[in-house]
Amino acid sequence: MRYLILILISIFFVQTTNAQIYEVGVFAGGSNFIGDVGATDYISPNQGAFGAIFKWNRSPRHSFRASVIFSDLEGIDGKSDDPRRRQRGYNFNTSILEISAGMEFTFWDFNLHEIGIQGTPYLYSGITLANHDNYYFTPAGEYTSENTSSWAYGIPMVLGYKTNISNHLILALEIGARYTFSDELDGSVPDNKDRQQLSFGNTNSNDWYVFSGITLTYTFGRRPCYCNF
């Protein structure tokens, strides 16, 4: 799956090298998890996160955006502020592959064909798909694999600031929370229906995770005309 996604991104990059309204680049940063295991700090990266990002700038104020990000999610009860979690002593670590697509809105016009350095805050939202392996905790507290995997749907809520550092390079700093429609990422709810009695925590509250980091994108090609957009 990883190699197929990277191949498709490479093909799309080659086919669009004549249009200035496209960007392609990388994301690098960290991740943290908010759920039923571990700390509940909103922004506290404890694992690395890396990926690729692509944008189609439909106007100086909005872009269609897609990304693929790889990361581990980790939760350690011993690092929680909740004394009940510290006493319980659970911990988990799982790898995720996130695919995201949606729209990015800038607070002000961001037209790279104007002379000089520009900068603007922006918002991004859309939909995410996070692939993860399934685990559960035994009555003895052992983190155990179910030997299956699932896709968790989610909604990204990203706030960032970007600026051009050259004629073709754009640097951005962003923090993005992902609300998922799943409560299985940390193993607090087993995927197998026969193990539902092993569920724990707030089963009415789904899992969150946060990516914090930077993006560096390259924009290329001829000057666009936004008049039809």
UniProtKB/TrEMBL annotation:
InterPro entries: DUF6089 (IPR045743), OMP/PagP_B-barrel (IPR011250). Residues 5-228 form the DUF6089 domain. Pfam families: DUF6089 (PF19573). This is DUF6089 domain-containing protein. It comes from Winogradskyella ouciana.
